[in-house]
Amino acid sequence: MGLYEISLATGVGIYIILAVSLNLITGYCGQISLGHAAFYGIGAYTVALLSKMGWPMYLTLGAGFLLAGIVGTIIGLASLRVKEDFLAIVTMGVAFLFVGIVRQQEFLGGEMGISGIPSHGMSKPEYLALVFGFVVLSILFSWYLKRSWMGFAFDAVADDEKTAQVLGLDIKAYKLTAFAMGTALAGLAGGLYAYYTRFIVPDTFGFIESVTILSMVAVGGIGSIFGVVIATILLVLMPEFFRFINDYRLLLYGVLLFSVMRFAPQGLSGFFRYFVKRKEG
Questions:
Q1: How many CA atoms lie within 13 A of 142 on its CB side?
Q2: What is the DSSP-derived secondary structure letter of residue 137?
Q3: Is residue 235 within 8 Å of 216, Cβ to Cβ?
Q4: Which residue from 12, 47, 179, 279 could staple onto 60, CB 3.0 to 4.6 Å apart?
């Protein structure tokens, strides 16, 4: 595998972690987030700053994970009183607020971002192995959570909040837990991205990136781990293999997102289940 393929595979792995993290919030607990890239950015900037101060990689990644989760919890607390369209608007505001704050702070690099992020002596193949180690852990955690008692509680909250409340479930606690876990995992992805590119700028973590992540979840099938992973791989690789698509990437994601939500709300996972049932029948 050449350096280009290794670099591409590393990027795919980071996006898989991001998509899985949003799936915890949107797919499992039914909360629409249009500001997920902000928590991605919190992890990236935390790692960039701490690594340049000489912190080791395991501590910077842990700090990015924790800080993104803490900020996510605070935002989640502030968003508990709103839902559906209003929640989407609130989270969208978070994405714009994050980019605006970063651009105005000189110690965060301002418009120029942060460059020269240390690689800690890791080669590209070694870093690819590290990223995919986290990919496997993220998928396994998501799979375990989906089949745990908490996963069943998330499903109940996502399907019908009133019924879940009648059954004795603490709706706010479960929503907050999902938001905290999803944003923390996004922070981890951001930290991995910072080490991957060794250069970060504010616009990378804006609203458009949030829509990109949401597209991966929606196209794969909201709540489906397998579908989300497949959709992420396809959406990341398509612009690479079909160069003419790259200039229209945002338009493509927008069309895909609209088409899936309108005509195939279950995404790729719905198609897979349909063909499996048809084959069995």
A1: 29
A2: H
A3: yes
A4: 47
Structural tokens at position 77: 């607390």
pLDDT in tens, 59-96: 999 999 999 999 999 988 877 776 666 778 888 888 89
Q: Which amino acid is at 16?
A: I
Cα 260 from chain centre:
19
The two three-digit tokens of residue 70, written as one number: 């803490």
Q: Which of 171, 141, 143 is nearest to 159 (CA)?
A: 171
Residues 6+ apart with CB under 8 A from 181: 21, 24, 69, 145
3-class SS at 199? strand
User: 148-165: per-residue pLDDT in tens?
Assistant: 989 888 888 888 888 888
Domain assignments of the chain as residue spans, ordered by start: 3-206
Residue 277 token pair: 């049932």
Question: What b/e sequence results for 158-178 when a residue is b if at least 16 CB atoms lie within 10 Å of its CB, and e otherwise?
Answer: beebeebeeeebebeebbbbb
Alpha-carbon distance 154 to 148, whole Å? Answer: 10
Q: What are the tokens at 236?
A: 């990341």
Q: What is the pTM for the complete model shown?
A: 0.90
**CA count, 13 A, side-chain hemisphere, 115:** 2
Residue found under tokens 């702070």: 105
Reduced DSSP (H G I as helix, E B as strand, rest coil) percent helix, strand, coil of the chain, to 5: 80, 0, 15
Which residues touch 3 (CB under 8 Å, ≥6 apart)?
A: 124
| Contact partners, residue 196, CB within 8 Å, separation at least 6 | 10, 11, 14, 127, 131
